[in-house]
Specification:
about 450 residues; disordered C terminus; mainly alpha; disordered N terminus; 20 helices; Growth Hormone, Chain: A
């Protein structure tokens, strides 16, 4: 199976490494906000509320970032498909780095009143706008540089980078969370945000040296480029956009695990901060190895069986993980946490970058992935606050697990309804009638 002479001239390793590093830096920024929201933001930005309401508001501020994602997807998707993937990748890492550093500089509620949470939400919206183009741009870049028989493997590096960003975010918070409460609340929480200054420099250096994809260059040369990619996207590919929206709610497993479960363990059950943070670190370390392995399997047996198996496993293991938190057994917490997030969830994370991108032709690929995933991710982003609202105390974990399982079921339905694409040549991806599609 070949993709033609032009399509094989990409630089898959360089593109995959750039995607990995850029995503790691960008999602370090994105996830330190979630950790801070779970641990301290209820005290410094929402202190006038009772503890339960303050926690709910802090988690909701995490979800607010996902509101900007659909808007960012429309804007950055258009730019990426009309003017190139590289421009989007440089812009997103710059915006994310600046907005995150500014969060660390914010005055607290006690200093400036309601303006403090208002500014916090505004900067979170900028983070969400940036994240909307990050993964879709990096995935498009990796997919279009990759050889056809290894597209899942090379695109999975974007999500491995995301996991590395989570490791960095949690690892940086480990010594910070161990500070005395007065130091944590006064200045300690700011340090991880200030360290994001490195994102601006490193991200710009790495991505400014990356070549545009051969697929996009070919479109420019052959004048196939769409000036308004969103029009053909919604005219010809609306069903796949909808399919990606529904499938993308699987991201709720991540937000429930990293944000809600952390808040539930510390604020409701009363577990120590440091060990529960280590669960996330170890699970993400396992995920770094598991994601490319699952992706490699999907290149051999297909996207759908691996994806569906991972989603079903997440639905089951979330019950075990939340139950282990409720009983406070550290052995069970680490076991279920690593199995859920490190192993099984990695099956979905390793597959979706290729699977979603392969649903669309190159001329609308970045837009299709960005719009579809970011609407779905926006729903997932509010899962921690929804879980907090329906949980209702120590025994409420059952309702949260049922809620998560329901979202996994939606993902399974959407994925099962899609075409299998692992054997489709890259130039034929997204075409409505090809012998290779199902």
């Amino acid at each position: 199976m070949t993709d033609g002479p032009r399509a094989t001239q990409g630089k898959p390793r360089k593109a995959a490494i750039a995607a990995w590093i850029g995503s790691a830096l960008e999602y370090y920024d994105f996830f330190i906000y979630g950790t801070a929201a779970a641990l301290v933001f209820n005290k410094i930005f929402f202190p006038t509320s009772d503890p339960a309401t303050g926690t709910l508001l802090a988690l909701a501020s995490f979800g607010v970032g996902y509101l900007a994602r659909p808007i960012g997807a429309f804007v950055l998707g258009h730019i990426g498909d009309a003017f190139g993937r590289k421009r989007v990748l440089v812009f997103t890492v710059l915006l994310m780095g600046i907005s995150t550093v500014l969060v660390g500089c914010l005055p607290t509620y006690d200093q400036i009143g309601v303006a403090a949470p208002a500014l916090l939400v505004a900067l979170r919206l900028l983070q969400g706008f940036s994240a909307a183009g990050e993964q879709a741009g990096a995935n498009s870049m990796s997919l279009e540089h990759a050889p056809a028989h290894r597209r899942a493997y090379y695109t999975s590096f974007t999500l491995s980078g995301t996991q590395a960003g989570q490791i960095l975010a949690t690892a940086v918070f480990l010594p910070v969370a161990a500070l005395p409460e007065e130091h944590l609340v006064s200045w300690g929480w700011r340090v991880p945000f200030w360290l994001s200054a490195a994102v601006v420099i490193a991200g710009l250096v790495i991505r400014s040296k990356l070549d545009e994809t051969p697929v996009f260059v070919e479109e420019v040369a052959d004048t196939k480029r769409e000036k308004t990619p969103l029009l053909p996207l919604f005219r010809d590919h609306w069903a796949d956009v909808l399919r990606v929206v529904v499938a993308s709610v699987i991201a709720a497993v991540s937000t429930i695990f990293t944000v809600y479960a952390l808040s539930y363990a510390v604020n409701t059950v009363g577990l120590a901060k440091t060990p529960i943070l280590w669960v996330g670190v170890l699970a993400n370390i396992v995920a770094l190895a598991a994601i490319p392995l699952w992706a490699g399997l999907a290149d051999r047996v297909g996207r759908k069986p691996v994806f569906i198996g991972g989603s079903a496993g997440c639905a089951v293991l979330m019950f075990g993980y939340l139950w282990s938190l409720s009983v406070g057994s550290w052995a069970l917490i680490f076991t279920f946490g690593i199995l859920l997030f490190g192993v099984v969830y990695s099956a979905t994370n390793g597959i979706w970058p290729a699977f979603y991108g392969e649903m669309f032709p190159a001329k609308v690929r970045l837009s299709g992935m960005a719009v579809g995933t970011q609407i779905g991710f926006a729903l997932a982003g509010f899962s921690p606050s929804i879980a907090e609202a329906i949980g209702g105390g120590r025994e409420g974990w059952v309702y949260v697990a049922l809620f998560t399982a329901g979202l996994c079921a939606l993902n399974i339905i959407a994925v099962a309804s899609a075409r299998e694409t692992h054997r489709v040549p890259t130039p034929e991806l997204g075409q409505r009638k090809t012998p290779a599609t199902v």
